[in-house]
Amino acid sequence: MDKTHSLRPLLAALALAALPAGAWAGSADPAALAAPELPTDRLIVKYRRDVGAALPARAHEAATRRGLRLELLRRGALGTHVMRLERRLPLADIRELAREIAEGDADVEYAEPDRILHALATPNDTQYGQQWHYYEARGGINAPPAWDLSTGSGVVVAVIDTGYRPHADLAANVIAGYDMIRDTTNGNDGNARDNDARDPGDYASYGECGFLSPSHNSSWHGTHVAGTIAAVTNNGNGVSGIAYGAKVQPVRVLGKCGGYTSDIADGIIWAAGGTVSGVPSNPTPARVLNLSLGGGGACDTTSQNAVNLARSRGAVVIVAAGNSNANASGFSPASCAGVVTVAATNRNGGRAAYSNYGANVAVAAPGGETSSGAANGVLSTLNSGTRTPGSDNYAYYQGTSMAAPHVAGVAALMLSRNPSLTPDQVASLLRSTARAFPATCSQCGSGIVDAHAAVVAAGGGTAPPPTNTVAEVESNGSLSSAQLVREGYTVNGTVSSRYDTDYYRVNLSPGSTLGAVLSPVVTANYDLYLYNSNGTELARSTLGTGAQESLSVRNSGSTTAAVYLRVRYVSGTTGSGGAYSLAID
To answer: Residue 342 and residue 365: Cα distance in Å, rounded?
Structure first.
């Protein structure tokens, strides 16, 4: 007998407006995001006149003073001299040597490190820039470097949800699934179980799902979830998927009035390759199951048994924590044993106001929070129809339903990298490689899932700590020449003289709060100021010698705003000893 506990997709205050193609809502161009700077053993020097093929004496002297041996490697195509050291050094050291060479010889037009670059798997999809949840240092999952290692190829991810629409930005990555809904009225497609997992819409009129139940438009929830996992990527159109080399297997279990536990349990079992009476066997069992659904009450026996069977067949079961701002222990399947329960974070990396929490939560991932602006939600594939299917589009949603597929996508990247991982190993690595929360997220698991660290660990390696430190780049002595930096980064700078002042520009996303902490050497007194783009002072911190200066500002607007931090000399040490760090959260 079916359990009459209706489960619904986990959505909270949906923002249904689609983005126009190419619209920009991010706080920074993802192509400009800082990558780790690799050491180099070379530098490039351009002279104002032809100095021949010999190594200029002053360049040699500058290197010798630092205990280094410098040789001319070759002449560059632009009339430059490419010089080589006997070993690789950090970029900061090479920059300092280049600066000394340029300042010590009037014939030098410029000198700079000969940096080592590498290929980056940055998608060319037109709306990737709005998918902050993939790449932003503060609230994202650090996906770009993970794509250099894995795209999810060879892995099937089952999306156990409302079905799917054959969206042009998704369909190529969808394989055959199944419609598990027995009830023809709830299924809304004119038949019971069959092999057509397309979503006909889950619109319901007032009172249709129970006495005084509200009406609601079709959500196309499964299509949105599936797009986050495996939207077609690098096709020059739309959005990107996290595991865009993987395949999505839609398993339809939610209709216009939710879904029965018995149907959902059968969907779990079938997706993992188990036997379901009356249903053909699954020829392509999934290694990852995403359940962005749930309801009140602790995990029931039927659900737990289905999860156990899926895990016994090697499937990782990812579940949304729920959107009731309550302990996930009171919700199913979030409280089932053996699942990876996912809480939702907002763009600042703190717990989204609606997200469930508690000891059952393993990790957190971006779920968005559209109350601070639609663009702070999670962007993915959708459909424009309010009742029945319409045209393809894209929309921002928020919810733990949006957080779970981030983790499912990362799990697919891990399993593609190392197919021998067990469900428990995947869960353990997701927890151990998650990064610390940059904002308050109590009882949200071990941290925000870190795609790169998880994929490296899946391959048996140790992920390096994130390189979120950048060096000051002169000249940055005015608003117009301010150095662009990003939230979540620390700048290491120097006050070269008592006349020196340094400006840094931060593109502050809507709803974000910027916090800045200036830490000077103990023998210096440097003040910290904050301005808007018009040069109007917004805040200042002016404490004494050796004191940390701190201030903050919130962008309460609906668009990204440029703000400017200024480090100003007051008294004390300058020059090579006048160092400071400026942490920007």
So the answer is: 7
In the block, tokens 């002279």 appear at 47
401 backbone dihedrals φ, ψ, rounded to 5°: -60, -30
Catalytic-role residue among 105, 125, 161, 502: 161
Contacts with 96 (C-beta within 8 Å, 6 or more apart), sequence order: none
What class is the 122-458 domain?
alpha beta
CA pair distance 359, 386, nearest whole angstrom: 38
What are residue 174's DSSP bridge partners?
Answer: 248
Identify which has the larger pLDDT, 8 or 364.
364
Specify the CATH number of the domain 40-113.
Answer: 3.30.70
Q: What is the pLDDT of residue 463?
A: 61
Does 5 qualify as catalytic in the annotation? no
How far is C-alpha 119 from the chain's CA centre?
Answer: 19
Q: Exactly one of 240, 292, 332, 401 is catalytic; name it.
A: 401
Nearest to 378 by CA among 356, 407, 358: 407
Per-residue confidence (pLDDT) for residue 13, from 0 to 100: 30
Point out the catalytic residue in the list 5, 81, 216, 221: 221
161 assigned to active site? yes
- As a whole number of angstroms, the distance between CA 373 and CA 508 comes to 13
Instruction: Report residue 155 as tokens.
Output: 């892995």
Q: Spell out the domain ranges in the chain.
A: 40-113, 122-458, 469-584
Annotated catalytic, 118?
no
Return the number of other C-beta atoms located less than 10 Å from residue 432's C-beta.
12
Average pLDDT taken over every residue of the chain: 87
Burial class from Cβ neighbours inside 10 Å (0-12, 13-18, 19+) for residue 82 reads: middle
User: Which CATH code, of 3.100.10.20, 2.30.40.10, 2.60.120.380, 3.40.228.10, is assigned to 469-584?
Assistant: 2.60.120.380
